[in-house]
Batch of 2 targets.
Target 1
Amino acid sequence: MSVTSQHIRAKPLWNQKKLMPWLFLMPGILFFGIYVVFPIFQSFNISFYKWSGLGEPKYIGLKNYVKLFSDRAFEISLWNNLKWLVLYLLAIPTGLAIALFLNQTVTGIRLYKSLFFFPFVISQVVVGLVFTWFYDPTFGLLNTILTSLGFAPVNVLGDPTLVTYGIILAGLWPQTAYCMILYLTGLNTVDADQVEAARLDGAKGLRMLWYIILPQLRPATFIAFVVTVIGALRSFDLVSIMTNGGPFGTSRVLSFYMFEKALSEYGFRMGYGAAIAVVLFAIMMVFIVYFLRTMYKQESEPR
Amino acid sequence: MFPKPIHRSAAHWQVFYQGMLPLVMILWLLPLIAVAIFSIKPAVDFTNGNYWSWPSSFEAVENYGKVFFASDMPQYLLNSIYITIPTVIGAVALSCMTGFALGVYKFKGNLLIFFFFVAGNFVPFQILMVPVRDLTLDMGLYNTKTGLVLFHIAFQTGFCTLFMRNFIRALPFELIEAARVEGVAEWRIFWFVVLPLVRPAIAALSVLVFTFIWNDYFWAIVLTQGVENTPVTSGITSFNGQYRAAYHLMSAGSIVAALPPVMMFFAMQKHFIAGLTLGSVK
């Protein structure tokens, strides 16, 4: 009797198990599909049109992309993105250095760690404002310090050759804090026995760091690399707040230039903006694929 | 432990380290400290060019009072709250379900769907901008908090699903198996077995999403405008336009705008950090 009742129950249970995941997934897929996945394809499509946002879009094939090649502003933005990408990576070693500095157990260290992490929690808009004032040529703290040391004052955000570096430095501030916290958590898991054994073998300082500690910190380094690259390519808030792309458009990055073109006060150019977005998306995709591949390898390992 | 614990070093090193700590910290937070000092100075210090001299009087109450009672700042803060809280609830709720589905069931396409969520979470905002703005306009939700909330929920579901699915997969699977053997219905397993176990993940995601959304600027300026609906990040720029060159007020305003996530962080530090490391660095 009990056998048959189990048998009867087994079938709906099997059905239920097949249907269940889809029921649970539906709201999430619906939202994500409508607002994230589908718009990506729409943007690709819009990039083949000339469209002011109002009225009928006009199909112009690859013309938007052809125009990008001779667009000096696009070229500058692309170069600036490269600068962001390379220099932003400095957040990783700097974050590691601060983490090593703070990885002690003295009184009050917890508070110090939190205070060092502080810049990451506040919005980039505020970080931008804070640094704009910091760089200000008339009263900024930077120039106050420079002139009191006998140097000539510099107008960081007004100088086309310096401006992008000035903004990147502002961005490095919260990003370094993020990397620091990743490494601090990572350092907690470092195998103490291994460190002691290496120490007995006479390893210390940089050799210890390179051969014993860093290999164990690989998961932290991986995440730090991914979030830093994504952060560098996503940079928008700081440029928008600190310089609005200036002076003379020299601090634009792709994300900002796209926004400017698509929603500028001189008329919306949605198609051209979409084409810029597609280029940025393609660059980002390289790193996304790398991230997914690494995840896929981890998934393939037995759990 | 690495580096070598400082209390195992010579006494003079210990003193040196203890002295360095506050010094480096002040250097690190210098730009922020400057703004904090600005925010308690009187207006007259700025008109006289006394930017960095000792404040001629302390006007914290006056300055912050103006921000709270004589500007649009309270409305912006309220807007931010009305945008952030529903987003946190929505994104966490959706991802509890997607995370459960992807973490517990084996079915065709599981990993593919999961990777869609993960990849989508990393795409540049600009590739979504034009269509999302259009969709929001079409639904009549442009310049409404609802329009912003709906998008934020959708986008944050990507990151939250990544986190939640990995968290659920790391749970002891035997618990779910045992419940199944008992004949417990699947939705009851979700509600009574899994949900109580993922509470730490819910906490971590809540603080993180709160911070992300509170600090969002891009979507705020793409989907809203004006005092009525815009959150504090884009509100602060109009606030600054209003008080141009009144650095004491702009500084106070910035600090007010930045404060809620900071308080959230200090209140729930452990969860915050667990979330930031994507749960992969334990």
Target 2
Amino acid sequence: MRRRLPSPRATLVIAAAALLALALLPARFTGWVGWFRGPFLAAVGPVSGPLRIVSKFLRPGERGPGRPVTDSEAELVRQRDDAERRANELAAQVLELNRLLSDFQRQPVALGSRVRMIEGSVLASQPGRGLVDVARGTTHGIGPGTVVVARGAAAGGQLVGIVTDRSAVSSVVHLITDRRVSPPLMIGVIGGEGVMTPEVLQQSPRVQLKPTGEGLLAADAVGVAEAARIAPGAVVRLLDDSWPVSAQMTLLGRVTAVEPTDNPLFRRVVVRPEVDVARVRSVILRIPADGAPGPGGTP
Amino acid sequence: MNWIVFILAAYGAFALEFGVRDALQLGHTAVAPHFVLVLLAFVGVWAPSTVVLWASLALGLGLDLFYAFPSASGGEEVVVVGPWALGCLAAGYTVLTMRPLMFRRGVMALGFLALCGSAVCAVVCVTLLTLRARFDASFTIDPAWSELGVRLANAVYTWALALALAVPLRAVKPVFGFPATGSGVFRAEGVRSGAYSKRG
């Protein structure tokens, strides 16, 4: 005798009731559903990845006309940018060592750690939520606090964000331009193009930037004297102990405006990332070689 | 309906949602169309009612998995399964309810049904998320009216996308294997429900 199966309508009602319960139960009871996200994104990735080329065509996110376009030229530029960043990081290390020596302090120097870099393509972007999904996960060594920079000729090592969640094959990156990013503040050192010496680095103005929510970073309370040394077009790099070691001296963007504020003693400095970080197609993930993200790296 | 074709179409719609949607955003706002909801409206126009509801649920589940929320602590993202799925279910039901009143072969019908379905989906989704956010502080969403405003704007944009996709979708309609319908709107509904056969 055949058992009578429930009708499709009845099954649908049961499914809807189950989903209603899942929708309203607190995260501690429904955390397991997040496991399915990684495989789902990985399954759609092979098609959505190439489609991002179309996206790029429709809405170019990268700025910087006149930059090289062939792969070999782009790779050379990337290597040069990375060498510049490394040199600037070493300058920051020298500065830190000088400070430590002068203060007779005995504490480990965090700067200058080795990082391992792997490339990853962006699977999906949710600019409204300040997130992008990258096709690299724990199987590739991605840990919490892994720093993500843009890849490409025009990107020039632009800091994109920080990994906040990861599955076996994909990771969620929180963009630096989103207000909810953690750490929420970024101390940027303002300088010119290329390599900076420790002396130049020491004298360079610094600003405490936070995301505006409109794809920009801004420092709202920069002293008038400090602001007078900041010119539109200047390059801004991250130098902030609250961020992971692998993020130090990565590019935050360029100063686009130094504006007056309601308080005559302060100016507002606006920084625009070199690329639209929500629309990068390919990124480089900077993983600390020792596995530890360093100060501030644990979200 | 041929489910294999539907799965392939859903795969394509999700790939477009993930890969292209952000390029269609209006400026720096979060307003952008939903390819998946256009597919939902398309299936909703032509497929049998139970099939429409199951297909809506499946598409909604996929959107739930994709649209994760930033956690309040800034740590791991929170996946909330249910709001999109139930929203899409409500959208599918809305399309089913409204389609007898439409001239389904018309380009405007798909756009209008996509608009109505997306709007209903937005209301259900925001309601559920707001309810949950009241007692679950693990994730963050924008204030309800702001979230609803963006989603309703998305619905209007989805209407425009549906208008643009109506002709290509009509061209691939035979591949989906939808049940044959008569020439008239009301006759089609009668055939589906079996009213004509009962009358002999």
